[in-house]
Amino acid sequence: MRLTRAEWVRLLLLWLGGIDLRLTMLAVPPLVPLIHRELHLDEKAVGALVSGPVLLLAVAAVPGSLLIAKLGVRGAVIVGLGSVAVFGAVRGYGPSAPVLLAATFLMGVGVAVTQPAFPSLVREWFPRRIAIATAVYSNGILIGETLPTALTTPVGVLPLAHGDWRWALASWSVIVLLSAVAIATFVPARVRGAAVAARWWPDWRRHQAVRIGLVMGMASATYFGANAYIPDFLEQTGRHDLISPTLAVLNGSQLLTAPAVALWPNLLTGRAGFVGSAAFMALAQAGIVFTPGLGVVAWAFVLGFSTALAFVVVLSLPPRVAPPGDVASMSAAIFTIQYATAFVVPLIAGSLWDATGQAAFAFVPGVAAGVAMAWGAMSLRIPGRGSAGP
User: Fold this and answer.
1) pLDDT tens-digit profile of 309-337?
2) Looking at the domain assignment, is residue 260 inside a domain?
3) Domain ranges, residue 371
4) Which residue of 97, 214, 331, 345 shows the fewest CB atoms closer than 10 Å?
């Protein structure tokens, strides 16, 4: 069936919302050398600045469900994305590390409380086209992760800001603010499923939320771990010149998942998407460790695509599995477990590296995560295409 004009507008809004959820978070890593040098941050502060928002995605997901229950989806989007835009810009106010860290914390809370709202919108707007809507929304998230890393330095935003990292950070918030206004304008004041949500605190025993969160957490942990440890691994193995292309391919390959799902929606049905992704995740990390030369770039492509495919599958599940009133709370439960796992597993990987002195050991938890993800996915009950919950 062809999409109506209203449906095209809604897809655009979902796409913009996905971009907003990551744009300001990923604007920081390219600017870390400038921020580090000017504010004299130690490594713990740098770590908190970069990885703190990831942990907040877990900690603040359930409060996001409460916000949706109290304010409705439209209110949650206005409050959440408004906070992202305002505090994302405030990060650059004055030469102050406490202001930077506090604003980053509040910005991360804004992202976390907004994220559970979008599966509710997918369910409400596209009950029979969940696969396509999820692919568009997740593509926005992946673009939001890619744009700032590609366009902040050395060309793009930072030169336009005359080399000032404060204005470079604030400029990304303008995009969030404008798209948030558009989303708030077109989202109805009362979205049918989320506005009457009977539950904001997740029922952790229903809808396989814990199992899905753990399965997806393995994929997220692998993705964040690869971004953290590939650069130093290549440095240790004498391939410094491959760091930039490997990271670019790792992150850029994720953008192909949305077209793949649009062409083959069956990737989101059954267990094939999870199990296939898990197998390729484990294989790709072994390939990165044992393949010499340029082979690491090819394996990075496989790893980025497979982790992103698992991410798209997970985003499609709450609208299909949960009743309308439980979509936000189920999403919050999944995000809580997913991002807590994504925070902890890379720490284990770093500890293995520190204990052995060998960068290759940092990929062992990622390979184990792929195996655990495949095992956990085998017991999932995933509804067929077009299903929209009980």
Assistant:
1) 888 877 777 877 777 677 878 888 888 88
2) yes
3) 209-377
4) 97
